[in-house]
Write a structure and sequence with these properties.
Layout: H1 7-13, E1 18-23, H2 29-35, E2 41-45, H3 53-63, E3 70-74, H4 84-92, E4 97-100, H5 106-116, H6 140-147, E5 149-154, H7 157-161, H8 163-167, E6 174-177, H9 179-185, H10 195-210, E7 214-218, H11 222-231, E8 235-240, H12 241-257
Parallel strand pairs: 1-2, 1-8, 2-3, 3-4, 4-5, 5-6, 6-7, 7-8
Length: 270
Amino acid sequence: MQTPINHFKKALAEKRTQYGLWVSLMGPLNTEICAAAGFDWLLLDAEHTPNDPMNVLQQAQVIAAYPGVHAIARVPMGHGWMGQALIKQYLDTGVQTLLVPMVDTPEQARELVRCLRYPPGGIRGMAATRASGWGRNPNYAKEANREVCLLVQAETREAIRNLDAIAAVEGVDGVFIGPADLSAAFGHVGDPWHPEMQEIIADAFRRIQAAGKAVGILTLDEALARKHVEMGATFIALGTDSNLMVKATSALAAKFKGTPAPAVPKGQNY
């Protein structure tokens, strides 16, 4: 067996924009529907859902049947709790790319890098798991550090203050701007695209790019998504499975009942 190449990580390094979708409904059937749609990556969210490593494993197995679609797991962590054991579990499912919320300091980012890597460059524990083909790939532990991909979320005032240092950490492959939490931190709850936030986000893009790292963001607005791509977003989520279902089901019911479809709140981002 060979250690799989992380094509998503390779694309980020080559500055090829990767288009993705947030997957929050826990699968497996909706995950398969999304996997067949043609996105470059799907984010399996374990931060704001009851997803656990078992659910993520099952969904990653579904996604693996669709070549060209990369599974990313967002782990339920943040604000200084690095959770080395939890990171190990998600990596051992075979998911190669993790998105970690609420990374506020370069020290936290460096600790995350250590958690993702086997010794001597890190502290990830050894085991024969799905990631290594249950031990059938004898080179996995020697090659895995090359293929794991770490994306960290900047979504607090502290993270913005420390953004240059966070982005400069060796082993951080990309920084994701979390518009909803970031706007709340700056006093614009429910208004992620307030003019002040657009200035902060544009400045964050420039700072992350200056460090040579990939920039990521999520927006449900097509015009904003295209604007962010023009600004240099390297990995961008164009929507969420739950929001797509909310809009489609509400519109369909309203069409036949003769009532207006519920309006999506301005600026909603999830």
